[in-house]
Design goal:
Elements: E1 2-5, E2 16-23, E3 26-34, H1 41-45, H2 50-57, H3 65-80, H4 86-114, H5 119-122
Antiparallel strand pairs: 1-2, 2-3
Helix pairs in contact: 2-3, 3-4
Amino acid sequence: MLINLGPQHPATHGVLRLVLELDGETVVRCIPHIGYLHCGFEKMGEYRQYNQIICWTDREDYLNSIGNNVAFALGAERLFGIETTERCKVLRVIASELSRIMSHLVWLGTFCIDIGAFTPFLW
């Protein structure tokens, strides 16, 4: 029997679809289909100025928006030959690390919801 799991299933969080082949209650084969979070960012940026794209980079990954902004800014600075100050570099690292920690905490909270514990997500 074949079963489609996702992308609207609560366990997949909208980012993938799994086609499961079952033998009774045993999963015999799993075919993942990824890419359901794709939004065409590259195509939207083809005909825009560099300063019009920075507001879209934080929408690429809703858990690590500052990381995407930093990556785009670093690329633009290299293209234009701009050198940033040491303070700017340190602040970027701090913001990126805080965003990474937040992403891990959201993962932990949603994992707890998936296994039946809702309260840790609220902490």
